[in-house]
Structures
1.
Amino acid sequence: MKYLSTTFYLAAIMLWATTSFGHDNGGSDPIVKIEDGFAVMTTKGVLNIVYKPSDEDFANPERGFYRASSTRSNNYSPLTVAELKEYRKGPAVGSAPGAYSTRSSLLWRYFIMPDFVDKPISSEFLAKLQADLDVIRESGMKLIPRFSYNNSQGRGQCPEGTICPPYKDAPKAIVLEHIKQLGPILTKNADVILTVQMGFIGLWGENYYTDYFGDASANGGIRKLLDKNWQDRIDVLNAMLNALPKDMMVQVRYPQMKQRTVYGINAMTTTAPLTAKEAYSGSAKSRIGFHNDCLLASADDLGTYKDYGNSSSAAKQDIPNLKPYFAEDSKYVLVGGETCSDAFSPQNNCAPEGIADLDLRKLHYTYLNANYNNQVNGDWVEGGCMEAIKRNLGYRIALDSAKINTEVKAGKTLSVNLHLSNLGYAAPSKKRPVYLVLRNASGVTKYEFKTDVRFWMSGANLSGSFKLPASLKPGSYEVLLHLPDANASIASRPEYAIRLANDLWEAETGMNNLKQVITIL
């Protein structure tokens, strides 16, 4: 179900009049009530409710347009709670006529470390990193970090002209030492980290212009990567995977990086993508996602869909194999990035003129940069698809319908069936519990559904038969749905709970109030 009209509500309610959750309605007519946002049919012993989705843009955890930030080891700019809380309110981005606002729950942050290209990271820098993570947790945000050594391109006499070596990144031994230092801090703060981008290698940490890991640009002369370059990169990625919790993903810039990490240096671009059976297993294949930093900047997203060759093969563009691989693999790994150029116009516009909103869904994007490139983002505003993109990045879970017993005796079984649709581009990327909640003045009782939100690609049908405790006090109980963060440290924080795309949200509790009351006898 998508955007449902009141006419649809009535049609659905009358259809349900003959299927009242296994109860005979005794031939009596159903009682139908239409209210703002939902419609209710009450038959004997059962509430049948149809809900209307909302088109509101709101901040939901682990998805959406992120806000970009950066800091340097030689001039550290700490985060503040006030700044991050402001991002959640939706300050304006860009300029007219392409200006827009969006409520953000994610902060993407560069940690640039020019001081440490030849030595360990200082304890002072690590302490400042921890302070930033404390601020992120207090503000109710989550972080996407990338570590690099240099973000300033050098101009000169070289084939690339505007980007010339030296690129001023760090050698492999130093990178591996730094990953070992950062691992404990990132693991300790995994509750407020969405994913870590591979980073470290090359200018901007984008794994392309690099002094030590193989320069595939025109500056490097051979315009490809050699076997040693691939092995060095694979060693860095594996070090990151080993340093982080088994349920945390690491995002790579190019899909071929994942293929060759999983299948070896000679892996073809036709290698098999991740399957549902392999997903979320803790293997390297299940933990490597993608960040595309030049989304819709050219036909191959400026080298995203490129085979970079090896010692025995040449580099070449390979959109026909790598883009479908990306599309299939991304069903079960985290995808995000940014646009970087408006040169690929009108293809980077909204459909039907372009493919922007179509590709975002096809490639399962969970997040994008709100700050860059705002020429492209502004085109989406003017083209009329920005509001849909804001809503649909990542997951957008809407409650369609519910069937709930109206009366249950304490000690007996409460039967519930909820149907939810995912209107977004991707499923939630992290596991979290899903609770049915009964609440009255005497307290709260929770029952957990057996489900995994990471597989809610199109939605879910939640059915539960919950044995009520015999000690449950008689009376009227509100019914709510709660999807809190899985980490105990922030499980009680409303900012980290999933809000359904209906007018059911309780900001003070982080629960979705189904606006129905049942009686416990």
Note: Residues 1-29 have pLDDT under 50 and may be disordered.
2.
Amino acid sequence: MRASSVIVLSVLVLGSPVCSRAQSPLRHWTDAVDARFARTQPVLVYTLRVDTADLTGYGVELHIRNAADTVRLGMIAHPEYDDRYSRYVENIEATGPRGATVARVDSALWLVVAPGGESTVRYRLRLPAEESSNRSAWKPFLSPTGGLVGDLHSFMYVVGQTLAPAHVILDLPPGWTIATGLTPTADPHTFFAPSAFVLADSPLLVGRLRSWAFQEQGVPHRVAYWPAPDATPFDTASLVNGLAKLTHEAVTLFGRAPYRDFTFLLQDHVEGALEHLNSVALGASSAGLASEPANFFAEAAHEYFHSWNLMRLHPAESGDVDYRTPRGSRVLWWSEGVTMYYADLMLRRAGLDAFEPTRRAHLESLIARYMMSPGSQRFSPESVSVVAYGSKPGILGDYFPSTHLQGELIGTLLDFEIRNLTGSRRSLADVLRLLSDRFSGPRGFTTLDVEHAVAEVSGSPAEARRFFERYVRQPHPLEFERYLAFAGLRVSVKWDAAVDDSGRVAADHRAYSWRSAGVAPTLLFGNPQSVWGRAGLHTGDRILSINDSLVETSAQFTQAKNRLAIGDSVRISFTRGATTRTARFLMTGYRVPTVHIEDAAGATARERQVRAAWD
């Protein structure tokens, strides 16, 4: 997601033919090395120590040599998940041959003064208490049998010296092994990072791991799994085989892998995932793998596809590592949404179970969700992208549009349009490959770059300009009938009352909450026409009670809300600013769309060709 400098890699000329072979991103044979030599660079060696006698945190030691007498050390802010682990740095001290001091000068910044430019900075990273029973896959943890450590949660970097290489030494309990995207060395406990970015983007899964390997086009891939002590047995061969199939499909689509090797870092009793340059941290519940592996593979397909579309082909707003929060990107609709589009396709091509039986059924589900999300029609994909990462809930008021949903549907319609304009000779995949060839370097890409690539691949700059002005830069509702007609398909929509699992009309429970420390649960909903919005409530209101029952946690809000039945009188006490208020309403049901996509009568040969190529 980052870029380290602004370098224009190529000039895109509209109407020029698609390059059959990309220019090498290397400019000289000396570029093809892990570490450049410069006497002015500091020499950095990190040591991370885990002691099973104290699993509440771990120690980090950074030895700095060949540096200035005064350096700044920063804890890196992630563009998507800024967990602010600088809050958990404890017992920091500095020593040196000629003395050294360290002092905190900002929330995530420290100043080290060491005459002669050599010092050793030691600190402890205290692991915060988990706020829920389900830990996120990217957060560090420790247990008697293993953990996840390293990356930006653990290692400070030398500000202004982000291209300085570093070695990482792990001091671990006996019997623990290591899985990481960092470069191995002759010592199995020492790894190499050619830059601060690579160091920060390479978590380390450690412990009593299970491990498997496969190759794709000669590129090594490793699957490392940390099982919980109470792990449920599951079919490990199917796990590895499924990941190998996904890898094959993605590499085939792009033509080559964008890394020297890849590691799947899988963790039991964990949820969520986070992509990295040549690894991915994934929650992989052993119970889930035993009962419903489709959930895991859907997540894995999405995060793995990010290896190309987000990590290598990254937004132009992304930059080098920084201790300050990165600015938002306007192209996450592409990075996230188009990744969703191809993750679903990769699952199907790999022969793995998807949530819907066919691509049509999947598209029907997406359109229905879009129609239920007024925010996705009210706000442009570019504006939603800017606030998608790192923003507080409710930043768009009583709406929460999804950049993933917007982008996946935009990718779908673009695919139909490109296939129509080119007689099915080209598709959205050609746009992905073209962008990857041209913008996988430091510069990154913008919405305009995507528009130009679509124009070049489709041969129609005017249609590309119209599409992007209408649906990407502006908040114009997507016109599904127009674009599905290119494939000889028609869309019908029927609205009916929502029903629950038993077939009874469902109450309008479409309200949610989140809770910050020391404050009442805060209301969040995505449709002002819900019963909650019509009652005068707004996102950001702090809920005190429902029908005189105190609400002090998000779980209590969910329980109280879900007990409400159609026809119930509801009285909610809440605060807005410094004022306490009351909202009263009768609980009602709500309507949901059923979307059906079918072959249109009288489809032309060209339309049937597009349909066959897409289906």
Note: Confidence is low (pLDDT under 50) at residues 1-22.
3.
Amino acid sequence: MSSSHSRYSTGKVVWWALGLALVLMLPSLWVGLQIDDYFHWGLVNQRSDVLLSHSPLSPFGLFSFLDGDTARVRQLMDLGLLPWWTNPQVEYAFWRPLTELTHWLDYALWPRHPMLMHLHNLFYFALMLWAGFRLFHSIQGENKAWVWAVFLFALSYSHGVPAGWLANRNSVLAVLFMALALAAHHRWRSAIGDGGVVPHRVAVLSCVWFGLSLLCGEVAVSGGAYIFAYAFFYERGPWLARIGSLIPCGMVGVLWLGLRGWLGYGASGSGHYLDPLQTPWLFVQALFQRGVDLLAGLVWVIPPELATALPDQRRWWVVGMCLLLLYLIMPLVRRDRRARFWLVGALLCLVPVASTIPHSRLLIAASLGFAGLLGLVFASWREGSLMPLDSGSGFRRKLTSVVLGVLVVLQLGLSALLLPVEAFSMRLAGDSLVNSGAKSWQLQQLAASTTPVLINPPLSSAGGYINGVRDYLDLAVTPKTWLLVSGVRELTVQTVDEHTLEIKAPKGLYDPVQEGLLRGPQAPFQPGDKVSLSGLIVTVVAEEGGVPVHARFQFEQGLNSDAYAFSHWHGGEVAPCNLPSPGQSIKLKLNSDRCANVE
């Protein structure tokens, strides 16, 4: 093959893969702003002082809404921007200054044109794919294994939410710079291994790319996992030199970690994010369950966010199937250091992201290594060289063909079908959980002294999101808005007296899994616990597993006074609610068409 034809073929593969991925991502152009995006818009445009947080060396504090300031958390709870059950000590603050600057471009240049913001997102997505393709080319070589890897990476459904949700852009940027760092590291170490001379600036460039990746998002820690796997499973030569190769990027990582901690960034008091350094035992306890769900999403294309609907026994099936796959590809793993590198790197990437609730978007870094591994596996399988001709029975070969055939269908077929769905999924979630109710809530007719109270929204943690949506749409925003309990389960609401409501839900007044961001298992409720807000006292009457199942809400003013306007969630919209008479109760669901005596 001539060099010119080789370059043409390479370019053709890249453009086909890029074009196909971008076409499948087109639904993201209609996602608009969703959930955290409204916070970011308000912070950049300084539309609400209450959103401001203490965020050193961060242009706008977009990712540190919960900055560890207990007094500020209390203030946000008083205003209803955080629910009453929030852990006052919760901290969820991340240092992503480079990502913030890209959001500033969006909200400064085209603040009312979300489609342009999503085009901006797709630009970084295309760059990330291109960087991944180059990394595959440098490690795999220009062959069928490279072509397989390119299309597997381009069509990974795990890219849908990071590239389709503006607030998750940090993951795309982090993996972009991570791939560039790995390519530079490979060039540096390969030249040394071949006895060549490579300028030290290549090693420095690897560190620079890695540092930029860390300043985009925490998923960049996965870059360290790949560099570790490279030294121990890919590189050849003296062990001392291989271990020494970890020092440059290791120093960058230690510097970033120390500076991040010194500036006060981190996470604590949350059930969503378990910081391995602050709560190591809780992290270890959650590692198996979360790790297996992530592994199922990576290998067998079972979206981790949907896995909770499956029986708990699914995890043992996943482990068994993954061990079977490893057994079938082991001949390749043993003889090909590239396969060992990609395999170990991808698996190590699952460890840091297991610190939070499993979701397909967390697989974006691991998808790089897994695409590289499967590229080698599929190419070797199709060429008939996956295992030596004199090894293995006919049954094993047939089983290998069946399992790998299924993987091809899942990784290229099902994953490609899921990619546009994942890209649009934040619009579907935002509309059902927040947007429709925020737009329909009739707040403009309320007096300034009236506090609107929404009894059963899908998420009682959505108070701040609702105000953000209304502010962006120039709809009326009240000074205080209380959301009482999550309505995803049937509730019983009883009026005790003219000032008091009691609400019961046998499975919890909020969902500790979906809403665990604001309160983790390390801060359980006990019967008799009180939460005092300005004008409202909430008393936990009964709990189950640390989550209230029965609570009493004592309002400072009379329930039927003009001080409050009670509403309930009705088929995706907010409708007025007349509370039952003292001693009477009603049952509410998300689709309840009546609340007491409303006609």
Note: Confidence is low (pLDDT under 50) at residues 1-8.
4.
Amino acid sequence: MNIRQVELLNILLTTKEKYTLIDQLAEQLGCSEKTIRNDLKTAAIFCIEHSSISLERKPGCGIFLLGPEEERQHLVRLLQSNREKPTDERVFDIAYQLLTSNHPLTLQDFADQHFTNKTTVKKDLDYIADWLQPFGICLHSKQKVGIFLDGEEARKRSAMAHLSQLAPTHKHEHNSITRLFPAYEVNFVKSILYSGGFSFTDETFDRLIIHILIMIKRIKQKNPIIIPPDSQQITEQIEYQLAQELKKKIEPFFSVGIPDSEVIYLAWHLMSGKRLAIDEVENPMLDRLVNELITEMTRLTKIDFTTDITLFQGLSVHLQPALNRISYQLPIKNPLLTEIKNMYPYMFSMVIFTLGNAGFAFSGILPEDEAAYIALHFQASVERRKQRTPRKKRAIIVCHHGIGMSHLLRSRIERQIPGLQIEHCMSRADISKHKVDDFDLIISTMPLPEVSIFHIVISALFDLEDQERLHDFVENNGAVEQDQHQYATLQHFIVEDAIHVQVDLEHRYEVVEMLANSLYDHGLVKKEYIHSAILRERASATSIGSSIAIPHGNPPGILQSSIAVAVLKRPIEWGTEYVSLVFLLAVVNEDPEVIKKLFNELSLLSEQTEFVKKLSKQTTKQEILNELRQ
């Protein structure tokens, strides 16, 4: 049945009148009476297949569905479940089908299953194809064959594990794919993991649950993982022994044999999971990496991170599994990447610079998803320097994004809410191990229906709305106020002769190159700064929301702090966003407070959507400066 036929039958099932005229139905559904008569044949067949209800016709009166009320309600519920799914849910399901199918599928298959048309399915497939590219998976469509995916088994499983990020409606449901598996299977896998003594973040537990469920399904479909012969050395690791223990529990429950290649692959996942604490094992390579990272970030930002023991421990906890993820090709997608880049553009950029530095021992190995997590650790260190006392109400933080985000949340909350004393940061799995009733408040990044005491759910990045809600709870009126009309620091660094309006370029690299050349022509940066700014943009798009981008080059190439501006003739694609206003930042050797003010002003500007639109419409340099001064 198509959408119109579903609506027709729903009208007949729920109408209060006994008979309904065909011309009334045609008018209501916006089609001809002939179409209604044809659709009634399909509706009648549907009723016969799913109930004892029959379609009665009476000349001059119309049509009526004859049958008991309980069966009418049954058909109404059935129709409701068969309505065309929302776009996000349909895309999610189609992608999952493609990733798990052992044979080609057709447009008609998808159209029939999701009660839609081929044109809609084609658009969905284009979107899915783009999303699959970073995983190294290609979508093919061949006449007389169908639609199928080409890619290694490990890549398909990785894509399946990240399906929740394909559909925006699932972006905060890290285990949304589990809805595709029987509840008893999901609960069993959860039970063996939670009782296994693992010290993982909630996010990692969710990923492991998904991986094991996918592993079982793919083994049953005869699609095993292929492990290179030189991977046998992992059998000496403790994680391999733990994977073997899990195998012993899984096999009898699911009636499936797990080959050793799958055990090794599961051990890789265990080694790559984000942990709550670092292993008590000496790791000179890891210590070297963390020390180099902290030293370089101190040099670039002129903020002394070298004395922050919490920062060292947090980075160690994060980087140990991160290096394993890179080594075993088990990339993760950071669900907060865009928000982190937009909220902390300066710290994120400094991390990108450090990781891309050719002199850095591990340069180029960590993608921006990992870099964003690292930026949170450094931002948390900055926030810790601003803590205020005294504390009043005792609270704990429950965060499923790991230790880096937990520390950042703790620092930001303690700084913004002086009436709170944060006693502990923990995962959801650890709640049962603590006497939570001893605390006044639980601050959580997810709902906690099992907790009896009051808890407030906030976003992981603790935005302004969250701050206001938390302030209300602790009855504290001392919220930090910001002047939303001052861009003095931004104005100070803007070079009037380096403001360009009505810029007509096609690609963001061209814009970056033009602005960098402008600063070079004025003797404000070295020649190599131009190349470094383009390389930085290639590493990660510098858009920060609200049509603004803030590209920048390597600090050593800056001769004098300055900013160049481009107002684009029309918005152009800038990573995942479209941008119309560009600030090329070349700021170095400034007081950290000045840098902080500059990025606060840029962040504030990105929240003023209407003001950005107004700036983007200006046609002269002086108009741009005048608007910023108002």
Note: The radius of gyration is 29 Å.
